[in-house]
Structure formats: structure tokens, C-alpha cells
Amino acid sequence: MKLKKAVVFSENPAAVPGLCAVAAALADEIVVLAVAAKGAAEALLPYASKVIWLGDQAEGSMIEDYVPALAERILALAPRLVLTGTSSRDRCISARLAVRLGAGVITDISGARIGDDGTLIMTRSVYGGTASATVRAAAAITVAVVPEGVFGEAAAGAAGRFTESPAAPEKNGIERLSVDVRQEERGNLSAAKRVIGVGRGLGAGKNLAPVEAFASKIGAELACTRPIAEEEALMAKNRYVGVSGLSIRPDVYIACGISGQVQHMVGVNASRVIIAVNKDAKAAIFQNCDYGIVGDMNKIIPALDELL
Amino acid sequence: MNIIACYKIVPFEESIVIRKDRSLSFENAELVIGQYDLNAIEAGARLVGEHGGELVALTAGSGEVENSKLRKAVLSRGPSRCVTVNDPSLTGADSSAVSAVLAEAVRSVGEYDLILCGEGSSDLYAQQVGVQLGERLGLPVINAVTSIKYSGDRLAVKRIVGSETETLSVALPAVISVSSGINVTRVPSMKDILAAGKKPVRALTGSDIAIPADRTTDTVETLAPNQTERKRQIFEGDGADTVSAFLQAVSAELR
């Protein structure tokens, strides 16, 4: 049995169809609240039962300034569930809404279902990815912060109704002075199809060059374990995978000189194929890979590079 | 400027033991100050160092908040005193409960201009408490802040949102969640650590502070993830024949 109603809101209209896919699995009626250009709000109609358009974002305002207006409309709709995205703005909005709605919040969910007793049950990663917690909603309203792509895309096909409910922004003592667009400083590891992970078996930093050469040959991004980033400082901190770091799901993950402790593996378990190179035949990684070779990564990788 | 920096005592995730049945054992887990909370304490220490005023550290939890070694570790990083809220019902408390308790507790701390929180706790990492706290207090509140400058009666803060960096002017008093990139945290000196032992601590309990009776969420179960079944075709040795046999096996995946 599904919930009666879910409300979806994101600062980014492009994230809304994905959120609606999750909402559709959990609730019969999906109401989208939109603060956006009218065309962008109308484009969401195929994903929802109803789109309530609060108007385009006012000049000089921040989207966060619409929290009071959003809260007022959500309270009137009285849904069991409110879904939003994981951007910093959506997170800020989710927390402020939760207080105004008297709601519980479950963030970064990895799964969601309705329990036999009709309660909402969600899973999320805790302790830096060491474990997954199953959390039951206990308040009248629950706000869920939902990562993109975890639940797939929504099917367009609903015939939503469009209603207008003009709202004004309400500042809370914060003025935006300026905005700069930043340069993205890293390759997108989370989206990479192939990733080579480097662990302590690397030894000295000079051994990194052949691995980089091999990575560029097979079109792979480089990642590492926590010690390589934090203790050895051989690679950037935003490249370490596992507990408290990134979780990746490439097509092929090649673990080089990585022992395969749980703390690293939680970040790569979703890879389609895991290939391991490690000189210790007893390394845990060999229990948890598809193909493994027992040997020194600093000999194997150049040899592979030559053979491919 | 008077500042309150909030922190949480958490189990160090690398020291959590995973049992055969995938449940977690915290028996031998080492307790630490939340990694991201250290950034909040550091940001507060730097602002007070530059502009004067007092930095007070505030935490809410159960027995772990009384850990004297960790309290000293917090006080060695700049705060002049520490306020702890200890109530057994706060074991595993969710963000709604923690932010509600902190909102009550700040009244016991005294006058403040700014409350700083880390982006999230390093155990549950809901990234909610700072913003919820600000909203409960009805104050200007913002997250993802990467720098803070104090001028006049306002703050100029930078905030990273997606591919944008925005500069905001924030009226005081305010509540700010700082991102981990805001600073590199200090390593306290032996002198700082010795001095920390003499700094005052105010220990509050559920009889001083209203603790919410109802939970908004219940954690039913916490388990390590299931490992995916793998093929486990293992080749032994780094000789040319073995490498080429290995390559043969993986070539379909790599070409």
C-alpha cells in the first residue's frame, strides 16, 4: 500500500523527474512545487499529478528565500513525504523545511519502501560507508534527501494539472553580493567507466607514472585508498575511495596494490567487474574480485601496458 | 565577537569492527571529535583570535560527551570553556533531536553572535543539524561555507554551491555550517593541552535541558553492506606467461 501523497521540490528543475521516480514508487499522488521559469515548471507536468508553480525566482533573491512559502504550501497539502535533491541549496532548504513542518529528515537515501504496516522505510549509508542503516519514518511528515541516479529515471506519462500559487521570497538576514562560476578541478570519478585504484603496494611515488600511462591508454580515471591520499599524500584527497571518501560504480575497477579491507571495498562494491593486482596471495582483495593476479603491481602494470 | 562551536563525539569509523553476521561492534571503537566539527572549532578559534571575544564549545550526546581526554582535546583547540549536554536518550539521536537540544542548550551558554557547526557529523553525516539549529532559533542560517570574514556588524561569507561560488552578507547573530575545505585544523601544542585541563566545563543533563520525547525517525537496523559475489579467477606469479594468461582472461573487459 502506497502513501497517499508526496511533494517534490528541487532548486534544479532538471533533478525533479528523478525525484518523481522515487515518489511514484512510494505514493499515489505526486505534487511538484516549482520556483522556476514558467516553461521549466510546465515541462514537469508529465512526471506529476499536479505542478504548483510559485512563480519564477525573483531578481536579487536566493532560492532559499522561498522556504517560508514552500513550507506554507506543503503544510496545506499535508503529504506524508517530501522529496528533495542533494545539492547544498536543496540540503539547506530540506533542513529549514523540516523544522517548519515538524518533520523528520532522512538524507542521502540508497533505498526506500513502504513497510507492511504502511510506514515509510529508507536505507542510508552511515559511518562513512562502513554500514547501511535502515531508518523508519516516525513523524507525520518525512523529508527525504535523494541522490540523483540511484533510482533511475522517471517515466514521463502522467497527465499533471498546472496550478499557479504566486509566492514572494522572504529573506532571513542573508544578502547575495556576488556569484562566480568555478572551474571544475577534477575528472569525474563517480561517472568514470573505468577506474584504476592505487594502494600501498605502489611503494614510492615515482611508481605512479607507469600507472598513469596505463590509465590513459585504457581511458581510466585514477583513484586511491585512504592511506595513499592521507598518509602518503601521493594523490589528492578527493580521489580516495571507500569509507568517508567516494563511492564509485565503474564498469571495470582495477585494484592495484590494494589489500581489499572493507573500508576500501565499500566504495567499489558496486563495480561491475573488479580486477586485482597484489603481491600478497592472502590479500582479502582476492576473495572479492573477478580476476586477480598475484604479483608486484609495479611489474604487472607495465607488462599489461606493453601487451595491450 | 562571541562564538559557539558545536561538536559531536563519534566512533572513529576505521575502528568499528564488522562481525560475521554483518552487525557492527563498537566495543573497541576509538572515540574521536567529529572530523568536520574540528573545522568549525578551528574557524571559531581563528575569528576570535583576530577579532577578540570568546569561543565556547558545545556538544550534546550521551556518556561519551563526558570523556575527559576528548573534552581536553576540544579545549586545546581554542575554546575558553566547554558546555556538554549528557542524556541517555540522546544515544543514536537523529538530527531533529540533536538540533532541538542544541537550540535549548545555547540559552545556557550566554550571549553569542555566531554559532558554527561542521558540515555533518562524521558518523551519521546527515548534514542537517547546523541548518536545523539556525531555523529553530529563527536566525539567519546557511551551509557549505568555505570562508568567513567579519566586518562591521555582518559577516561576508563564501559558499560553494555546485559549480558556483557565491559571496553572501550575513546579519548577526547567525548560524553557519562550514565546509571541510574552510581551513586546515591545528595540531594543539603540549602547552595548549596542559592549559585545556584547567578550562571550565559546564555539564548539563536532561534535568537542565528539555529533551524531545518523540523521535522523528527510528533506526531499526545497522548492517555492513553485503559483498557482491565475484568470479575469483586468480593467476599466480608475475612471469610473462602468467601475465599474458591473465591478460587473456581480462582482455574482454578492457578492450
Question: What does the secondary structure layout of this molecule look like, with pairings?
Answer:
The complex is a heterodimer of chains A (308) and B (255).
Chain A (H helix, E strand, L loop, with lengths): L2 E6 L7 H11 E8 L3 H5 L7 E4 L13 H11 L3 E4 L3 H14 L2 E3 L2 E6 L5 E7 L4 E7 L4 E4 L15 E4 L9 E8 L12 E5 L9 H11 L2 E4 L1 H5 L21 E5 L5 H4 L7 E6 L12 E4 L2 H11 L1
Parallel strand pairs in A: 1-2, 1-4, 2-3, 3-10, 4-9, 5-9, 12-13, 12-14, 14-15, 15-16
Antiparallel strand pairs in A: 6-7, 7-8
Helix pairs in contact in A: 3-4, 5-8
Chain B lengths: L2 E5 L1 E3 L5 E2 L5 E2 L5 E3 L1 H17 L3 E7 L6 H8 L5 E6 L8 H15 L4 E5 L10 H9 L3 E11 L2 E8 L2 E8 L2 E5 L11 H7 L4 E5 L11 E7 L9 E4 L3 H15 L1
Parallel strand pairs in B: 1-6, 1-8, 6-7, 7-13, 8-12, 9-12
Antiparallel strand pairs in B: 2-5, 3-4, 9-10, 10-11
Helix pairs in contact in B: 2-5, 3-4
Short précis:
The complex is a heterodimer of chains A (308) and B (255). Chain A is α/β, with parallel strands linked by helices and 308 residues long. Helix content of chain A is 23%, strand content 28%.
Highlighted features:
heterodimer, A: 308 residues, alpha/beta, Rossmann fold, five-stranded parallel β-sheet, 8 helices, 16 strands, 28% strand, B: 255 residues, nine-stranded mixed β-sheet, two-stranded antiparallel sheet
The N- and C-terminal alpha carbons of chain A lie at a distance of 54 Å
Count of spatially separate domains of chain A: 2
Roughly how much helix do the residues of chain A carry, as a percent range? 10-25%
Query: How would you describe the oligomerization state of the chains in this entry?
Result: heterodimer
Query: How many distinct helices of chain B?
Result: 6
- Please, what is the average pLDDT of chain A? 92
Mean pLDDT of chain B: 94
CATH class of chain B, anyone?
Alpha Beta
The amount of helix of chain B comes to: 25-40%
Number of H/I helices of chain A: 8
Strand order within the widest beta sheet of chain A = 5-9-4-1-2-3-10
Q: Sketch the major β-sheet of chain A.
A: 7 strands, parallel
**Largest interface (C-beta under 8 Å):** A-B, 80 and 80 residues
Radius of gyration of chain B: 22 Å
